[in-house]
Amino acid sequence: MDTSRNMNKITLTGRTKRLFLTFGMLSLLPAFAQGETAPELPKGGSALPPKTAAVPVILSTYQLSQLENSRENSDLSITGMQPENHLYFAVRQDEIIAKATLNLLFTPSPALIPVRSQLNVYLNGSLQKTLPIEEDMLGRQNAVTVELNPLLIRNYNDLRFQFIGHYTDICEDQLNTALWLNISQESALRLSRQKLITVNDLAFMKALLFNPAAREQNTLSLALAAHPDPDTVKAAGIIASWGGILSDWRGIDYPVFLNQKPVAGNAVAFVTNKSRPDFLRDYPEVQAPAVEMQDLPGTLNGKLIIISAPDAEGLITAAKAITRGDQLMKGPRTEIISFTESAPRKPYDAPKWADITREVTLGELALYDGQLISSGVNLRPINVTLNLPPDLYFSEGSHIRLNLRHRYSNPPPHGISEMNFRFNNHLVRSYQLTPAREGDTSVETLFLGGFVNVLNQTRISALYLRPKNQLTFTYTYSHTRESEAKNCISDVQPLIHQAEVDPNSSLDFTGLYHFTRMPNLGYYWQSGYPFSVYADLGNTAVIMGAAPEEPELNTLFNALGRIGSQTGYPAYNATVLFAPGEEVLKKEAGRDLLIVGKIPAVIADKTPDLNLVLNESEQSLGFPGTFLEQGETRRRDQGKGGVIDPAVRLSQRGYDGISGIISFESPFKDGRTAVALMADSPAGFQALAEHLIVNKTADDIAGTVSILNSGTVKNAEVGHSYYVGHLPWYQRVWYVMLRNPWLLFLCSLVTAVILCWAAYRLLRRWRSGRMSV
User: Which of 150, 197, 146, 209 is nearest to 41 (CA)?
Assistant: First the structure.
């Protein structure tokens, strides 16, 4: 073993138990002011090379509406009923805050008593400033700068505003509507950030690369050899999907550098003994897969994670080891001694998806402790996210069974207090809170008739399921006061209430089927379907050209990161193919196809209704006559036989920068789906890769063809449709009847004729019997 590289060795298995390791504090070498140089580490161990460049100060400004727990594009309102409000912000673990200021714009109620009314600002529980409300401040907007103590700032921070309001000297009611203070959304938090120079320790790899506590989009560069092979791309895809899981709703971008050194930020490089980027050509050969952290050359504090192996297959092993065993890694280098593959995933078992084969408790759906608890004078809504497979089939009589248990503080005897249960903002049921009971259990059967599904393409204002759903429990207590001023001897203080939804409350989806009409890009966009049916992408074949370039690889890795964020599981078992021939594709016929770049001729020639062509020589689209409206997922004028013929076909050659997504049935096996990510140029792929980042844009992808052009998205539905999934024979008969009312009428008519004829024959025989007596 090369002891000079301080190498650790670990053994990983598919059932590795999570080890809770207590590491020492991260050794940090900050330069606290501009102009100071980074000190050298002591000799020995993992010494950083001397740095003489100054650590720059980065000034970041965040409007309060951008902070966590705030309402988007809305002011912050504080009242006597809700006198406190919390906002949260995060700071990267590899940064320090040299200075923090809060530029506050607030408007107090004109009914307040001056000076006795105040606004207090707290940072992580420590009072930063008390702002007495003077007489000249009442009823108008005021600007105040609050200096925050940077030494109090942690990775995750609580910025609390406390309003103390008074409007009268006697018999004061904190619920009076005259008590209010409005903080403008234009108020800003200004942070002067400096990057820390950290030691190379893999124990902090996840925090440095992905910073799970922050709200900003992540960026991680991937460095590969000039001509990476499919296995190397697969290994990079595993890392990309893992990063998507850790970045979650914030999204992540993966700039790709082929045979080049990334110039800023953090990066991951993939190295084998025979194939590597030129800037790592002197990296020693390895005998086993390994992971190493180094400083990124040419940067002050960037980190480079080097994933090395004797061959490309070993890179896949190392990538899987990182994503499953990073808790075991420590020091600058770790070698993978052995690795045992886990069992392939089963259909529809993505960690982020609810299991519809059994009852699912709300405790399983909760993301953090205390999510199912709300307390205060005005209780905040309790929200729970429910992710479902997008291909659920709903027929008349389909239902969800809700077993709801909840506890609540005793409501006032007068007035009405209630809990409203909403599903995707649609009211399901109101429950009256009963005094002296302080708890209820309710079993509800929620029928799903009238949903937007394969049977009914019209959009109606009713309860319906989506791939991502929001369950909301809102508790409202009545506030009454029965007193007159002459009898009032003390101020009226509002009661603090608390409500809890029992974690053992459950939802039962058993009895629903997986069956839907395809293609549907909306399913792909919202949940990665159909590739995400197997969370490890074990039934997915990624198809690229013979020598994919940086923009195409960037698009692929962003797409895999997006799917990872939607399933919660890395893409361990995707198959990557470069320019496959017909025989290879026939062997992979049972897989769904994710095509990045130009659609291979062997696929295009077998797909006659391919209605989008984008490449360096042609831009061609078969128009459906009308595009889908915003929010519309299906055409209402679908042609006979499930085919919508293009009304116009336009071919042209215009400016570069157009990209698109198209979905169609795989020509190699019925019921398998192909999704192609296409562009006419590197600029088009760059725009598409950016659009694939989670929450980067509010535009929805839908239909079977989606065009991205100059920042706008147009969706259309052309080509034939097909069905995937399984239905029992009686459900299929019913489904065909509902899709064809004339057939239902004809069968009813024939049935009526047969029954009438049978009744007629029976009556004739009965009459003949009587006549013969």
Answer: 197
CA-nearest of 545, 546, 542 to 674 is 542
Read off the tokens for 578: 């470069």
Say which amino acid occupies 43. Answer: K
Q: Which residues contact 136 (CB under 8 A, 6 or more apart)?
A: none
527: left (phi over 0), alpha (psi -120 to 50) or beta: alpha
Q: Are strands 221-224 and 256-258 parallel, antiparallel or unpaired?
A: parallel
Q: How far apart are the first and last CA of the chain?
A: 110
Token pair for 311: 């061959």
How many CA atoms within 13 Å lie on the side-chain side of 78?
24
Kindly give the pairing relationship between strand 252-253 and strand 290-295. Answer: unpaired
Q: Could you count the other beta carbons within 10 Å of the beta carbon of residue 546? A: 9
Chain centroid to CA 544: 26
Residues 348, 364: Cα–Cα separation, whole Å:
16
The span from the CA of 147 to the CA of 193, in Å, is 15
The long-range contacts involving 750-755, CB below 8 angstroms and separated by at least 24 positions, are none
Who contacts 729 (Cβ-Cβ below 8 Å, separation ≥6)?
Answer: none
Give CA–CA dist 608/631, Å, rounded. Answer: 29
The pairing of strands 540-544 and 575-578 is: parallel
Question: What's the pTM?
Answer: 0.83
How many residues are listed for the chain in this entry?
773
**Torsion, Cα of 96, 99, 100, 104 (10° steps):** -160
Residues near 380 by Cβ (< 8 Å), separated by ≥ 6? 374
Amino acid at residue number 751: T
Q: How far apart are CA 362 and CA 469, in angstroms?
A: 13
Structure confidence by residue, pLDDT tens digits, 84-101: 889 999 888 888 899 999
* HSE, side-chain direction, 13 A CA sphere, residue 510: 6
pLDDT at 636 over 60: no
Which structure tokens are listed for 695? 């929450």
Rounded CA separation 319/316 (Å): 5
The contacts of residue 1 (CB under 8 Å, 6+ apart) are 7, 9
Strands of the sheet with 333-339, listed across from one edge? 7-12, 333-339, 290-295, 303-309, 267-272, 221-224, 256-258
602 exposed, middle or buried (CB, 10 Å; 0-12, 13-18, 19+)?
middle
Neighbour tally for 45: CB within 10 Å: 13
Task: Choose from 418-427, 447-456, 542-551, 764-773 the range with maximum mean pLDDT.
Answer: 542-551
Query: Could you report the per-residue pLDDT of 369-382, keeping only the tens digit for each?
Result: 889 999 888 888 99
Closest C-alpha to 253, from 550, 698, 557: 557
Q: Strand 218-219 to strand 252-253: parallel, antiparallel, or no bridges (unpaired)? A: parallel
Which amino acid would we find at residue 118? Q
Contact 678, 660 (CB under 8 A): yes
Q: Are 118 and 132 in contact (CB under 8 A)?
A: yes
491 to 116, 169, 179, 535, 699: CA distances (angstroms): 15, 9, 14, 59, 52
The tokens for 94 are 């590899």
Separation between Cα atoms, residue 747 and residue 754, nearest integer Å: 10
Q: Residue 773 corresponds to which tokens in the numbers above?
A: 């007596």
Question: Alpha-carbon distance 611 to 77, whole Å?
Answer: 51
DSSP type of residue 368: S
- Extended beta strands in 448-581, E state: 468-476, 497-501, 506-508, 513-518, 540-544, 575-578
455 sits in the region (left: phi over 0; alpha: psi -120 to 50; else beta) called alpha
**CB within 8 Å of 39: residues ≥ 6 apart:** 29
The two tokens of residue 511 are: 């009895």
| CB distance 99 to 120 below 8 Å | no
Q: Could you report the per-residue pLDDT of 4-61, keeping only the tens digit for each?
A: 444 445 544 433 333 333 333 333 333 333 333 333 333 333 334 444 346 788 898 9
